[in-house]
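Progress against Task 2.4 (sequence-to-structure conversion) is shown through the following example record, which the project officer requested during the mid-term review.
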Amino acid sequence: MGLIDILFARAKQGHRTIGFPNDAPVLPELFQGRPAVRPELCQAGCGKCADSCPTGAITVPAHIKNPELLLFATSDDASDGGDALSLDLGRCLFCGECGKACTEKAIEFTKEYRLAATSREALKLTGETFELAKALDEKSLKVFGRSFKLRQVSAGGCNACEADINVLNTVVFDLGRFGIQFAASPRHADGLLITGPVTRNMELALRKTWDAVPEPKIVIAVGACAISGGLYAGHAETRSGVPPWLKVDLYIPGCPPHPITILDGLLRLLDKLDK
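Structure tokens generated for the chain above:
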């Protein structure tokens, strides 16, 4: 193929990289984003939404709570119920069954793709307000703001989150244009991006990888499994997500989260978004 042929082929292909974040993302028709939780519409004595949830992500008021809903809960995130309906994004699989079960529309999935948060507590929805992920402090931004390299660790994941992370390196999303790259060695990384429920077989590998990352360093938990254990929470062979000896700086929920959701979270952490 000659130079003219190459230039012609390139012109025919056109520009492939999406306009996000300057342009609104184009999401799949069946995309289910952040749920809108409206406790005021919750019909007391119902509990159908909680009964339909496979991971016990939904908490109904204490006076109607079914103890069986805590089947998948861990000691860290179990709740004894509250005065209002709530949904834990960190345990949500976005299957949509709760929205189908609730005839009152107290829980309804939207097209909102911005899901990342910088605290575990922020993922527990009790209303329509949601605290988006905050940027790192000024000192950390000076270190990571222009060049941010991550070592990805699949700690027993099913490869769904891993696949959506991998496509960020393609020409469509072009993660590198933001100064973010994945490193082959933890010694060249600024932090870890962890997926999977952290199986016992992977715990030692995760610890050794973490120890190899030089200070200062960041931890990012991607997907329901990494955040709470997902469907595997409480299983004898998993740690139900990122273990407590790691401090998580960014949570990106989903099963799996859409690549745009992951990208949005990373850009917010590095203060590369206007809103």
